[in-house]
Design goal:
The protein is α/β, with parallel strands linked by helices and about 180 residues long. The protein has 2 domains: about 35 residues; about 140 residues, Glutaredoxin (3-Layer(aba) Sandwich), CATH 3.40.30. Helix content is about 40%, strand content about 20%. The protein has a 5-stranded mixed β-sheet with strand order 5-4-3-6-7. A two-stranded antiparallel ribbon has the order 1-2. The longest helix is centred in the N-terminal third of the chain and has 22 residues. The chain is elongated and about 80 Å long.
Amino acid sequence: MNRSQRITLYILILIAGASWIFISADPTTAAMAGTSAPQAGFSAPDINLKTPQGEEFTLSELRGKAVLVNLWATWCPPCRAEMPAIQRMYQEYNDQGFIVLGVNMTYQDDPFAVTPFVEEYGLTFPILLDETGETGAAYQVRSLPSSYFINREGIITEVVIGGPMSEALLRTRIEEALK
């Protein structure tokens, strides 16, 4: 292979590589470019999702309540590990104005596994389905579980990425959000 053939080959490889990067780019990342991930002290991105039964929940309509938005999937071991503690805290603090929105990342999960998961863990808080990835993109989810504690004014008080969260951590964060 002579020098001009090698140069032509290298150029073709570069063009193919650049084309592959362009074609396989995640469109949700492009939509997030220039925006920062939700963090403590800032307003929580609004959520408008449905439960498996079709009931609709909108985060902004829950103003006046402290909210835990917990993004999870059925295949996620830390998600499974923290669900019993989240359920206990929901039962303990619900009458004080605390609500949990369990947002299943349905677009990267098995939608038929959600209801059996909810039944297995005896979850009584609303389970919402993010079927398009819109909520995951708005919250810039990079790891599951991801949890956002939101106070009564709609401001994020704490972000916990990863898990499982202990009851003690949950209790502290919930009480802070309820203030």
